[in-house]
Amino acid sequence: MTVNTVNQFINGQFLPGNGSQNIQVTNPANNQVIAEIPVSTEQDMESAIAAAKAAFPSWKKVAVSERARLMLRYQHILKEKHDEIAKVLAQETGKTLEDAKGDVWRGIEVVEQACNVASLMMGETVENVATNIDTYSLIQPLGVCLGITPFNFPAMIPLWMFPLAIACGNTFVLKPSEQDPNTPMLLAELFKQAGAPDGVLNVVHGGADEVNYLLNHQDIKAVSFVGSVPVGQHIYRTATANMKRAQCFAGAKNHSVVMPDASKEQVLNNLVGASVGAAGQRCMAISVAVFVGESQKWISELADKISKVTPGLWDDPNAGYGPLISPQAKARVLSLIEEGKKEGATCLLDGSEFSVEGYESGNWVGPTVFTDVTTDMQIYQQEIFGPVLCCIGVDTLEQAIQLVNANPYGNGTSIFTASGGAARKYQSDVEVGQVGINVPIPVPLPFFSFTGWKNSFYGDLHAYGKQAIRFYTETKTITARWFDEGQETGPNMTINLR
Ligand code: NAD
Fold it and tell me: Which of these, 293, 294, 289, lies nearest to 305 by C-alpha position?
Protein backbone atom coordinates (compact mmCIF):
# COMPACT_ATOMS: atom_id res chain seq x y z
CA MET A 1 0.00 0.00 0.00
CA THR A 2 1.33 3.46 -0.87
CA VAL A 3 1.90 5.87 1.99
CA ASN A 4 0.52 9.30 1.19
CA THR A 5 2.75 12.21 2.22
CA VAL A 6 0.53 14.98 3.52
CA ASN A 7 1.59 18.60 3.17
CA GLN A 8 0.77 21.76 5.03
CA PHE A 9 -1.19 24.53 3.29
CA ILE A 10 0.46 27.89 3.76
CA ASN A 11 -0.17 31.05 1.78
CA GLY A 12 -1.85 29.12 -1.02
CA GLN A 13 0.98 26.57 -1.34
CA PHE A 14 1.03 22.89 -0.40
CA LEU A 15 4.35 22.60 1.42
CA PRO A 16 6.24 19.90 3.31
CA GLY A 17 7.22 20.63 6.90
CA ASN A 18 10.50 22.34 7.72
CA GLY A 19 11.29 19.90 10.50
CA SER A 20 12.23 16.26 10.71
CA GLN A 21 9.34 14.98 12.80
CA ASN A 22 6.43 13.13 11.20
CA ILE A 23 3.24 11.54 12.47
CA GLN A 24 1.98 8.32 10.92
CA VAL A 25 -1.66 8.01 10.00
CA THR A 26 -3.00 4.47 10.09
CA ASN A 27 -5.94 2.62 8.57
CA PRO A 28 -8.13 1.80 11.61
CA ALA A 29 -9.24 -1.46 10.00
CA ASN A 30 -5.75 -3.02 10.15
CA ASN A 31 -3.43 -0.35 11.59
CA GLN A 32 -1.27 -0.22 8.47
CA VAL A 33 0.33 3.15 7.80
CA ILE A 34 -1.54 5.00 5.04
CA ALA A 35 -0.14 8.50 5.35
CA GLU A 36 2.49 10.59 7.03
CA ILE A 37 2.06 14.19 8.13
CA PRO A 38 4.79 16.62 9.02
CA VAL A 39 4.76 18.06 12.51
CA SER A 40 4.76 21.78 11.78
CA THR A 41 7.74 23.63 13.18
CA GLU A 42 7.59 27.06 14.82
CA GLN A 43 8.84 28.44 11.52
CA ASP A 44 5.97 26.72 9.65
CA MET A 45 3.40 28.02 12.11
CA GLU A 46 4.87 31.52 11.97
CA SER A 47 4.62 31.40 8.16
CA ALA A 48 0.99 30.27 8.34
CA ILE A 49 0.03 32.99 10.82
CA ALA A 50 2.00 35.63 8.89
CA ALA A 51 0.23 34.61 5.66
CA ALA A 52 -3.16 34.84 7.35
CA LYS A 53 -2.25 38.19 8.91
CA ALA A 54 -1.02 39.59 5.60
CA ALA A 55 -4.15 38.41 3.76
CA PHE A 56 -6.56 39.94 6.29
CA PRO A 57 -6.49 43.67 5.37
CA SER A 58 -7.35 43.04 1.73
CA TRP A 59 -9.70 40.10 2.33
CA LYS A 60 -11.88 42.03 4.77
CA LYS A 61 -12.32 44.76 2.12
CA VAL A 62 -13.48 42.30 -0.55
CA ALA A 63 -17.17 42.97 -1.24
CA VAL A 64 -19.41 40.83 0.94
CA SER A 65 -21.22 39.48 -2.13
CA GLU A 66 -17.86 38.44 -3.58
CA ARG A 67 -17.02 36.63 -0.33
CA ALA A 68 -20.42 34.93 -0.58
CA ARG A 69 -19.70 33.97 -4.19
CA LEU A 70 -16.51 32.21 -3.08
CA MET A 71 -18.69 30.15 -0.74
CA LEU A 72 -21.18 29.45 -3.55
CA ARG A 73 -18.37 28.15 -5.75
CA TYR A 74 -17.00 26.14 -2.83
CA GLN A 75 -20.41 24.63 -2.11
CA HIS A 76 -20.71 23.66 -5.78
CA ILE A 77 -17.28 21.97 -5.84
CA LEU A 78 -17.91 20.19 -2.54
CA LYS A 79 -21.18 18.82 -3.88
CA GLU A 80 -19.49 17.70 -7.09
CA LYS A 81 -16.69 16.00 -5.14
CA HIS A 82 -18.97 14.78 -2.35
CA ASP A 83 -18.44 11.06 -2.96
CA GLU A 84 -14.70 11.46 -3.52
CA ILE A 85 -14.29 13.29 -0.20
CA ALA A 86 -16.46 10.68 1.54
CA LYS A 87 -14.23 7.91 0.19
CA VAL A 88 -11.04 9.55 1.51
CA LEU A 89 -12.80 10.17 4.80
CA ALA A 90 -14.11 6.60 5.10
CA GLN A 91 -10.69 5.11 4.40
CA GLU A 92 -8.88 7.11 7.06
CA THR A 93 -11.57 7.05 9.75
CA GLY A 94 -12.96 3.58 9.09
CA LYS A 95 -16.52 5.00 8.87
CA THR A 96 -18.88 3.24 6.49
CA LEU A 97 -19.19 5.02 3.15
CA GLU A 98 -22.80 6.05 3.86
CA ASP A 99 -21.85 7.50 7.24
CA ALA A 100 -18.87 9.28 5.67
CA LYS A 101 -21.22 10.86 3.13
CA GLY A 102 -23.29 12.18 6.02
CA ASP A 103 -20.17 13.73 7.57
CA VAL A 104 -19.41 15.57 4.30
CA TRP A 105 -23.01 16.60 3.73
CA ARG A 106 -23.47 18.13 7.19
CA GLY A 107 -20.38 20.23 6.44
CA ILE A 108 -21.69 21.34 3.03
CA GLU A 109 -24.82 22.60 4.77
CA VAL A 110 -22.68 25.01 6.79
CA VAL A 111 -21.01 26.28 3.61
CA GLU A 112 -24.53 26.94 2.29
CA GLN A 113 -25.19 29.00 5.39
CA ALA A 114 -21.98 30.94 4.71
CA CYS A 115 -23.36 31.91 1.26
CA ASN A 116 -25.93 33.95 3.15
CA VAL A 117 -23.29 36.02 4.91
CA ALA A 118 -24.48 39.44 3.74
CA SER A 119 -27.84 39.10 5.49
CA LEU A 120 -26.20 37.57 8.54
CA MET A 121 -23.78 40.49 8.89
CA MET A 122 -26.42 43.21 8.75
CA GLY A 123 -26.17 45.73 11.53
CA GLU A 124 -28.95 47.80 13.11
CA THR A 125 -29.96 51.41 12.62
CA VAL A 126 -32.06 53.84 14.61
CA GLU A 127 -32.76 57.20 13.07
CA ASN A 128 -33.00 60.25 15.32
CA VAL A 129 -31.63 58.83 18.55
CA ALA A 130 -31.55 62.55 19.26
CA THR A 131 -32.77 65.14 16.81
CA ASN A 132 -30.77 64.73 13.57
CA ILE A 133 -28.50 62.12 15.14
CA ASP A 134 -28.55 58.52 13.89
CA THR A 135 -26.98 55.43 15.44
CA TYR A 136 -26.06 52.36 13.42
CA SER A 137 -23.89 49.31 13.90
CA LEU A 138 -21.28 47.72 11.66
CA ILE A 139 -20.37 44.04 11.99
CA GLN A 140 -16.65 43.68 11.34
CA PRO A 141 -14.29 40.68 11.23
CA LEU A 142 -11.71 40.04 13.96
CA GLY A 143 -8.52 39.08 12.09
CA VAL A 144 -6.73 35.72 12.20
CA CYS A 145 -8.87 32.94 13.67
CA LEU A 146 -7.68 29.48 14.71
CA GLY A 147 -9.53 26.16 14.48
CA ILE A 148 -8.50 22.95 16.27
CA THR A 149 -10.54 19.94 15.25
CA PRO A 150 -11.08 16.33 16.45
CA PHE A 151 -10.79 13.06 14.55
CA ASN A 152 -14.43 12.03 14.55
CA PHE A 153 -15.84 14.42 11.91
CA PRO A 154 -12.87 15.41 9.73
CA ALA A 155 -15.08 17.08 7.10
CA MET A 156 -18.03 18.45 9.06
CA ILE A 157 -16.16 20.06 11.94
CA PRO A 158 -13.51 21.97 9.93
CA LEU A 159 -16.46 23.11 7.80
CA TRP A 160 -18.27 24.32 10.95
CA MET A 161 -15.40 26.75 11.34
CA PHE A 162 -13.42 28.19 8.44
CA PRO A 163 -16.19 28.89 5.86
CA LEU A 164 -18.19 31.09 8.23
CA ALA A 165 -15.12 32.76 9.72
CA ILE A 166 -13.75 33.52 6.24
CA ALA A 167 -17.11 34.61 4.82
CA CYS A 168 -17.21 37.19 7.63
CA GLY A 169 -13.91 38.62 6.35
CA ASN A 170 -11.48 36.84 8.72
CA THR A 171 -8.52 34.73 7.71
CA PHE A 172 -7.92 31.31 9.21
CA VAL A 173 -5.35 28.82 10.48
CA LEU A 174 -6.64 25.25 10.86
CA LYS A 175 -4.88 22.58 12.94
CA PRO A 176 -6.85 19.42 12.12
CA SER A 177 -6.69 16.14 14.00
CA GLU A 178 -3.41 14.35 13.38
CA GLN A 179 -5.37 11.08 13.17
CA ASP A 180 -7.18 11.81 9.89
CA PRO A 181 -5.61 14.79 8.11
CA ASN A 182 -6.26 13.70 4.50
CA THR A 183 -9.88 14.85 4.54
CA PRO A 184 -9.22 18.39 5.83
CA MET A 185 -6.33 18.74 3.37
CA LEU A 186 -8.68 17.78 0.54
CA LEU A 187 -11.13 20.42 1.80
CA ALA A 188 -8.30 22.99 1.66
CA GLU A 189 -7.36 21.92 -1.88
CA LEU A 190 -10.96 22.34 -3.03
CA PHE A 191 -11.18 25.73 -1.31
CA LYS A 192 -8.17 26.86 -3.34
CA GLN A 193 -9.87 25.49 -6.47
CA ALA A 194 -12.95 27.53 -5.61
CA GLY A 195 -10.77 30.65 -5.84
CA ALA A 196 -9.80 31.39 -2.23
CA PRO A 197 -7.03 34.00 -2.24
CA ASP A 198 -3.64 32.95 -0.88
CA GLY A 199 -3.29 33.15 2.89
CA VAL A 200 -7.02 33.29 3.63
CA LEU A 201 -6.99 29.64 4.77
CA ASN A 202 -3.86 27.91 6.07
CA VAL A 203 -3.45 24.40 7.48
CA VAL A 204 -0.68 23.26 9.83
CA HIS A 205 -0.23 19.92 11.58
CA GLY A 206 0.78 18.50 14.92
CA GLY A 207 -0.44 17.72 18.41
CA ALA A 208 -0.44 19.33 21.85
CA ASP A 209 2.84 21.26 21.48
CA GLU A 210 1.84 22.83 18.17
CA VAL A 211 -1.62 23.75 19.51
CA ASN A 212 -0.02 25.35 22.55
CA TYR A 213 2.32 27.39 20.36
CA LEU A 214 -0.63 28.68 18.33
CA LEU A 215 -2.68 29.43 21.46
CA ASN A 216 0.07 31.65 22.76
CA HIS A 217 0.48 33.62 19.55
CA GLN A 218 -0.53 37.25 19.82
CA ASP A 219 -1.77 37.46 16.22
CA ILE A 220 -4.51 34.85 16.77
CA LYS A 221 -7.69 36.67 17.78
CA ALA A 222 -10.20 33.85 18.24
CA VAL A 223 -10.02 30.11 18.87
CA SER A 224 -12.59 27.48 17.93
CA PHE A 225 -11.96 24.02 19.37
CA VAL A 226 -13.80 20.72 19.23
CA GLY A 227 -12.51 17.69 21.15
CA SER A 228 -12.41 16.05 24.56
CA VAL A 229 -13.17 17.69 27.92
CA PRO A 230 -9.64 17.90 29.40
CA VAL A 231 -8.22 19.38 26.19
CA GLY A 232 -11.23 21.70 25.82
CA GLN A 233 -10.76 23.02 29.35
CA HIS A 234 -7.04 23.54 28.76
CA ILE A 235 -7.65 25.34 25.45
CA TYR A 236 -10.42 27.53 26.87
CA ARG A 237 -8.26 28.53 29.86
CA THR A 238 -5.15 29.18 27.77
CA ALA A 239 -6.91 31.07 25.00
CA THR A 240 -8.87 33.31 27.37
CA ALA A 241 -5.83 33.86 29.61
CA ASN A 242 -4.14 35.10 26.44
CA MET A 243 -7.07 37.51 25.91
CA LYS A 244 -8.49 35.61 22.96
CA ARG A 245 -12.10 34.89 22.24
CA ALA A 246 -12.76 31.14 22.58
CA GLN A 247 -15.48 28.60 21.90
CA CYS A 248 -14.64 25.04 22.98
CA PHE A 249 -16.96 22.14 22.23
CA ALA A 250 -16.12 19.15 24.38
CA GLY A 251 -17.20 15.64 25.36
CA ALA A 252 -20.64 14.24 26.00
CA LYS A 253 -22.80 11.63 27.65
CA ASN A 254 -26.16 11.83 25.92
CA HIS A 255 -29.28 10.32 27.46
CA SER A 256 -32.41 9.18 25.70
CA VAL A 257 -35.50 8.95 27.89
CA VAL A 258 -38.03 6.31 26.86
CA MET A 259 -41.60 6.73 28.11
CA PRO A 260 -43.90 3.69 28.21
CA ASP A 261 -46.42 5.41 25.90
CA ALA A 262 -43.86 5.72 23.07
CA SER A 263 -44.08 3.61 19.94
CA LYS A 264 -41.89 0.63 20.87
CA GLU A 265 -40.73 -0.28 17.37
CA GLN A 266 -39.73 3.30 16.60
CA VAL A 267 -37.87 3.69 19.88
CA LEU A 268 -35.91 0.50 19.44
CA ASN A 269 -35.06 1.14 15.79
CA ASN A 270 -33.96 4.69 16.57
CA LEU A 271 -31.82 3.68 19.52
CA VAL A 272 -29.91 1.07 17.51
CA GLY A 273 -28.33 3.60 15.12
CA ALA A 274 -28.09 6.40 17.69
CA SER A 275 -26.13 4.28 20.17
CA VAL A 276 -23.72 2.15 18.15
CA GLY A 277 -23.75 3.98 14.76
CA ALA A 278 -20.30 5.33 13.82
CA ALA A 279 -18.94 2.94 16.51
CA GLY A 280 -20.35 5.34 19.12
CA GLN A 281 -17.72 7.90 18.10
CA ARG A 282 -20.19 10.77 17.74
CA CYS A 283 -20.43 13.56 20.26
CA MET A 284 -24.21 13.30 19.86
CA ALA A 285 -24.39 9.48 20.14
CA ILE A 286 -26.90 8.19 22.66
CA SER A 287 -24.79 6.40 25.24
CA VAL A 288 -27.40 6.12 28.00
CA ALA A 289 -31.01 4.98 27.55
CA VAL A 290 -33.26 5.74 30.52
CA PHE A 291 -36.33 3.50 30.48
CA VAL A 292 -39.27 4.83 32.47
CA GLY A 293 -41.76 2.44 34.16
CA GLU A 294 -43.12 -0.33 31.96
CA SER A 295 -40.78 0.48 29.08
CA GLN A 296 -37.99 -1.28 31.05
CA LYS A 297 -39.41 -4.52 29.62
CA TRP A 298 -38.07 -3.46 26.20
CA ILE A 299 -34.39 -3.50 27.18
CA SER A 300 -33.69 -7.12 26.24
CA GLU A 301 -35.46 -6.67 22.90
CA LEU A 302 -33.29 -3.61 22.26
CA ALA A 303 -30.13 -5.60 23.04
CA ASP A 304 -31.35 -8.24 20.61
CA LYS A 305 -31.82 -5.67 17.82
CA ILE A 306 -28.42 -4.13 18.52
CA SER A 307 -26.80 -7.58 18.36
CA LYS A 308 -27.82 -7.73 14.68
CA VAL A 309 -25.53 -4.80 13.84
CA THR A 310 -22.27 -6.08 12.41
CA PRO A 311 -19.19 -3.89 12.13
CA GLY A 312 -17.22 -4.11 8.90
CA LEU A 313 -15.00 -2.39 6.38
CA TRP A 314 -15.80 1.07 5.01
CA ASP A 315 -16.85 -0.31 1.62
CA ASP A 316 -18.88 -3.24 2.95
CA PRO A 317 -22.52 -2.27 2.27
CA ASN A 318 -23.68 -4.57 5.08
CA ALA A 319 -21.44 -3.04 7.73
CA GLY A 320 -23.33 -1.19 10.47
CA TYR A 321 -20.23 0.71 11.50
CA GLY A 322 -16.45 0.50 11.26
CA PRO A 323 -13.50 0.15 13.62
CA LEU A 324 -12.53 2.62 16.33
CA ILE A 325 -9.98 5.22 15.32
CA SER A 326 -6.92 3.80 17.11
CA PRO A 327 -5.62 0.91 19.22
CA GLN A 328 -5.58 3.32 22.19
CA ALA A 329 -9.27 4.13 21.68
CA LYS A 330 -10.06 0.41 21.49
CA ALA A 331 -8.04 -0.38 24.63
CA ARG A 332 -9.86 2.38 26.51
CA VAL A 333 -13.31 1.10 25.47
CA LEU A 334 -12.41 -2.51 26.34
CA SER A 335 -11.13 -1.52 29.77
CA LEU A 336 -14.35 0.39 30.48
CA ILE A 337 -16.40 -2.65 29.40
CA GLU A 338 -14.37 -4.79 31.83
CA GLU A 339 -14.83 -2.18 34.55
CA GLY A 340 -18.60 -2.19 33.95
CA LYS A 341 -18.73 -5.94 34.47
CA LYS A 342 -16.63 -5.70 37.64
CA GLU A 343 -18.80 -2.93 39.03
CA GLY A 344 -21.88 -5.12 38.74
CA ALA A 345 -23.70 -3.94 35.61
CA THR A 346 -25.33 -6.72 33.60
CA CYS A 347 -23.69 -7.12 30.20
CA LEU A 348 -26.53 -8.20 27.89
CA LEU A 349 -24.35 -8.00 24.80
CA ASP A 350 -20.57 -8.06 24.88
CA GLY A 351 -18.60 -6.92 21.82
CA SER A 352 -15.15 -7.17 23.43
CA GLU A 353 -14.07 -10.19 21.43
CA PHE A 354 -15.34 -9.05 18.04
CA SER A 355 -13.06 -8.85 15.03
CA VAL A 356 -13.36 -8.97 11.24
CA GLU A 357 -11.83 -11.90 9.40
CA GLY A 358 -8.60 -10.93 7.67
CA TYR A 359 -8.50 -7.66 9.67
CA GLU A 360 -7.87 -9.07 13.13
CA SER A 361 -5.30 -6.36 13.88
CA GLY A 362 -7.93 -3.61 13.42
CA ASN A 363 -9.54 -1.59 16.20
CA TRP A 364 -12.80 -3.53 16.28
CA VAL A 365 -15.29 -3.52 19.11
CA GLY A 366 -18.66 -5.20 18.64
CA PRO A 367 -21.92 -3.66 19.84
CA THR A 368 -22.21 -3.82 23.62
CA VAL A 369 -25.22 -3.28 25.89
CA PHE A 370 -25.25 -2.98 29.65
CA THR A 371 -28.30 -2.87 31.87
CA ASP A 372 -28.70 -2.35 35.65
CA VAL A 373 -26.25 0.52 35.30
CA THR A 374 -26.02 2.91 38.25
CA THR A 375 -24.75 6.47 38.17
CA ASP A 376 -21.69 5.73 40.34
CA MET A 377 -20.25 3.28 37.78
CA GLN A 378 -17.36 4.25 35.53
CA ILE A 379 -19.32 3.19 32.43
CA TYR A 380 -21.87 5.85 33.38
CA GLN A 381 -19.47 8.53 34.51
CA GLN A 382 -16.94 8.35 31.67
CA GLU A 383 -17.50 9.27 28.06
CA ILE A 384 -16.83 5.83 26.54
CA PHE A 385 -16.79 6.97 22.88
CA GLY A 386 -17.38 3.44 21.68
CA PRO A 387 -20.32 1.24 20.59
CA VAL A 388 -21.55 0.76 24.16
CA LEU A 389 -25.06 1.54 25.39
CA CYS A 390 -25.85 1.78 29.11
CA CYS A 391 -29.48 1.17 30.11
CA ILE A 392 -30.97 2.47 33.34
CA GLY A 393 -34.50 1.96 34.69
CA VAL A 394 -36.44 4.61 36.63
CA ASP A 395 -40.07 4.87 37.78
CA THR A 396 -41.09 8.36 36.67
CA LEU A 397 -40.31 11.11 34.17
CA GLU A 398 -39.37 13.33 37.10
CA GLN A 399 -36.67 10.84 38.16
CA ALA A 400 -35.41 10.63 34.57
CA ILE A 401 -35.07 14.42 34.39
CA GLN A 402 -33.24 14.52 37.72
CA LEU A 403 -30.82 11.86 36.50
CA VAL A 404 -30.07 13.65 33.23
CA ASN A 405 -29.67 17.00 34.97
CA ALA A 406 -27.25 15.58 37.54
CA ASN A 407 -24.92 14.48 34.74
CA PRO A 408 -22.07 16.95 34.16
CA TYR A 409 -22.42 16.85 30.37
CA GLY A 410 -25.13 18.63 28.40
CA ASN A 411 -24.60 18.14 24.69
CA GLY A 412 -27.75 16.36 23.49
CA THR A 413 -30.70 14.37 24.77
CA SER A 414 -33.94 12.96 23.48
CA ILE A 415 -37.29 11.81 24.77
CA PHE A 416 -39.52 9.23 23.14
CA THR A 417 -43.16 9.66 24.06
CA ALA A 418 -46.68 10.02 22.65
CA SER A 419 -47.51 12.64 25.27
CA GLY A 420 -47.21 16.32 24.37
CA GLY A 421 -47.30 17.14 28.08
CA ALA A 422 -44.36 14.85 28.90
CA ALA A 423 -42.37 16.15 25.92
CA ARG A 424 -43.05 19.76 26.84
CA LYS A 425 -42.05 19.19 30.46
CA TYR A 426 -38.86 17.48 29.30
CA GLN A 427 -37.84 20.20 26.82
CA SER A 428 -38.49 22.84 29.44
CA ASP A 429 -36.83 21.24 32.49
CA VAL A 430 -33.89 19.33 31.06
CA GLU A 431 -30.50 21.05 31.43
CA VAL A 432 -29.09 20.02 28.08
CA GLY A 433 -28.50 22.26 25.10
CA GLN A 434 -30.02 20.18 22.28
CA VAL A 435 -33.22 18.21 22.76
CA GLY A 436 -34.89 15.73 20.41
CA ILE A 437 -38.55 14.82 20.75
CA ASN A 438 -38.96 11.41 19.09
CA VAL A 439 -35.73 12.34 17.25
CA PRO A 440 -32.74 10.47 18.68
CA ILE A 441 -29.81 12.67 17.56
CA PRO A 442 -31.01 16.28 17.46
CA VAL A 443 -28.11 17.97 15.62
CA PRO A 444 -29.51 21.34 14.48
CA LEU A 445 -29.17 22.46 10.87
CA PRO A 446 -26.85 25.43 10.33
CA PHE A 447 -29.48 28.20 10.39
CA PHE A 448 -29.72 27.32 14.10
CA SER A 449 -26.61 26.89 16.22
CA PHE A 450 -24.97 23.81 17.76
CA THR A 451 -25.71 24.55 21.39
CA GLY A 452 -24.16 22.08 23.84
CA TRP A 453 -24.26 23.03 27.54
CA LYS A 454 -22.37 22.36 30.78
CA ASN A 455 -19.14 20.33 30.34
CA SER A 456 -19.93 19.83 26.66
CA PHE A 457 -19.17 23.47 25.89
CA TYR A 458 -16.93 26.22 27.26
CA GLY A 459 -17.65 29.68 25.94
CA ASP A 460 -20.61 31.92 25.15
CA LEU A 461 -21.30 31.85 21.43
CA HIS A 462 -21.82 28.48 19.78
CA ALA A 463 -20.99 26.98 16.38
CA TYR A 464 -22.69 28.01 13.13
CA GLY A 465 -25.99 29.87 12.75
CA LYS A 466 -26.24 33.46 13.96
CA GLN A 467 -24.11 32.72 17.02
CA ALA A 468 -21.08 31.84 14.87
CA ILE A 469 -21.38 35.13 13.00
CA ARG A 470 -21.29 36.94 16.33
CA PHE A 471 -18.36 34.81 17.47
CA TYR A 472 -16.31 35.65 14.38
CA THR A 473 -17.12 39.37 14.36
CA GLU A 474 -17.01 42.49 16.47
CA THR A 475 -19.79 45.06 16.56
CA LYS A 476 -18.92 48.71 16.01
CA THR A 477 -21.59 51.27 16.88
CA ILE A 478 -21.57 54.61 15.08
CA THR A 479 -23.43 57.69 16.23
CA ALA A 480 -23.50 60.33 13.52
CA ARG A 481 -24.73 63.85 12.90
CA TRP A 482 -24.31 65.87 9.72
CA PHE A 483 -24.53 69.64 10.09
CA ASP A 484 -26.27 71.80 7.58
CA GLU A 485 -24.81 75.25 7.40
CA GLY A 486 -26.13 77.46 10.17
CA GLN A 487 -27.21 74.51 12.35
CA GLU A 488 -24.12 74.42 14.56
CA THR A 489 -24.95 74.02 18.24
CA GLY A 490 -23.13 75.52 21.19
CA PRO A 491 -20.90 73.52 23.56
CA ASN A 492 -22.61 70.56 25.28
CA MET A 493 -21.21 69.98 28.76
CA THR A 494 -23.28 66.79 29.46
CA ILE A 495 -23.12 63.20 28.27
CA ASN A 496 -26.57 63.47 26.70
CA LEU A 497 -26.97 63.75 22.93
CA ARG A 498 -28.64 66.92 21.73
P1 NAD B 1 -8.92 15.37 21.45
O2 NAD B 1 -9.32 16.31 22.52
O3 NAD B 1 -7.99 14.26 21.78
O4 NAD B 1 -8.25 16.16 20.22
C5 NAD B 1 -8.87 17.26 19.63
C6 NAD B 1 -7.80 18.19 19.05
O7 NAD B 1 -7.01 18.71 20.12
C8 NAD B 1 -6.85 17.52 18.07
O9 NAD B 1 -6.60 18.41 17.01
C10 NAD B 1 -5.59 17.27 18.91
O11 NAD B 1 -4.42 17.32 18.14
C12 NAD B 1 -5.61 18.43 19.89
N13 NAD B 1 -5.02 18.07 21.19
C14 NAD B 1 -4.99 16.84 21.77
N15 NAD B 1 -4.40 16.91 22.98
C16 NAD B 1 -4.06 18.19 23.17
C17 NAD B 1 -3.43 18.90 24.26
N18 NAD B 1 -3.02 18.28 25.36
N19 NAD B 1 -3.23 20.24 24.11
C20 NAD B 1 -3.65 20.89 23.00
N21 NAD B 1 -4.24 20.27 21.95
C22 NAD B 1 -4.45 18.94 22.04
O23 NAD B 1 -10.29 14.79 20.83
P24 NAD B 1 -10.50 13.63 19.77
O25 NAD B 1 -10.19 12.32 20.42
O26 NAD B 1 -9.85 13.98 18.50
O27 NAD B 1 -12.09 13.74 19.54
C28 NAD B 1 -13.04 13.07 20.34
C29 NAD B 1 -13.61 14.00 21.38
O30 NAD B 1 -14.20 15.13 20.74
C31 NAD B 1 -14.73 13.35 22.18
O32 NAD B 1 -14.57 13.70 23.52
C33 NAD B 1 -15.99 13.98 21.60
O34 NAD B 1 -17.10 14.02 22.47
C35 NAD B 1 -15.50 15.35 21.27
N36 NAD B 1 -16.36 15.99 20.28
C37 NAD B 1 -17.21 16.95 20.71
C38 NAD B 1 -18.05 17.56 19.82
C39 NAD B 1 -19.00 18.62 20.28
O40 NAD B 1 -19.59 19.27 19.44
N41 NAD B 1 -19.18 18.84 21.56
C42 NAD B 1 -18.02 17.19 18.47
C43 NAD B 1 -17.13 16.21 18.07
C44 NAD B 1 -16.29 15.60 18.98
Answer: 289
Q: Give the Å distances, CA to CA, from 310 to 64, 84, 159, 277, 298.
A: 48, 25, 30, 10, 21
Q: Collapsing DSSP states into helix, strand and coil, what is residue 6?
A: coil
Binding site membership of 464 for ligand 1 (Cβ less than 6 Å): no
If you measure from the C-alpha of residue 148 to the centroid of ligand 1, how many angstroms do you get, rounded to a whole number?
A: 8
Residue 356 in 3-state DSSP? coil
Strands 368-371 and 388-394: parallel
Distance CA 465, CA 445 (A): 8
Measured CA distances, 433 to 254, 409, 422 (Å): 11, 10, 18
What phi and psi values does residue 434 have, to the nearest 5 degrees?
A: -140, 120
Please name the amino acid found at residue 241. Answer: A
Assessment of whether the complete model's pTM goes beyond 0.90: yes
Q: Is residue 139 helix, strand or coil?
A: strand
Taking the C-alpha atoms of residue 478 and residue 473, their distance in angstroms, rounded to an integer, is 16
d(Cα 26, Cα 36) in Å, to the nearest integer? 9
- CA-to-CA distance for 416 and 112, rounded, in angstroms? 31
pLDDT band at 1 (very low <50, low <70, confident <90, very high): low
Nearest to 94 by CA among 179, 208, 198: 179
Would you say the CB of residue 452 lies under 6 angstroms from ligand 1? yes
Contact 387, 368 (CB under 8 A): yes
Residues 449, 444: Cα–Cα separation, whole Å: 6
List of E strands, 336-472: 346-349, 368-371, 388-394, 409-410, 413-416, 435-437, 453-454, 457-458
pLDDT in tens, 14-43: 999 999 999 999 999 999 999 999 999 999
- Contact call for residues 285 and 274 (beta carbons, < 8 A): yes
Whose CA is closest to atom 13 on ligand 1?
Answer: 208
- Classify residue 297 by its DSSP letter: G
SS3 127: strand
Using the 8-state DSSP alphabet, how is residue 4 labeled? E
Three-state SS sequence of 437-470: ECCCCCCCCCCCCECCEECCEECCCCECHHHHHH
Write down the catalytic residue from 115, 248, 283, 391.
283
**CB 158 less than 6 A from any atom of ligand 1:** no
Cα end-to-end span (Å), the chain: 76
Each residue of 182-192: pLDDT tens digit? 999 999 999 99
Could you confirm whether 390 is annotated as catalytic? no
The amino acid at 277: G
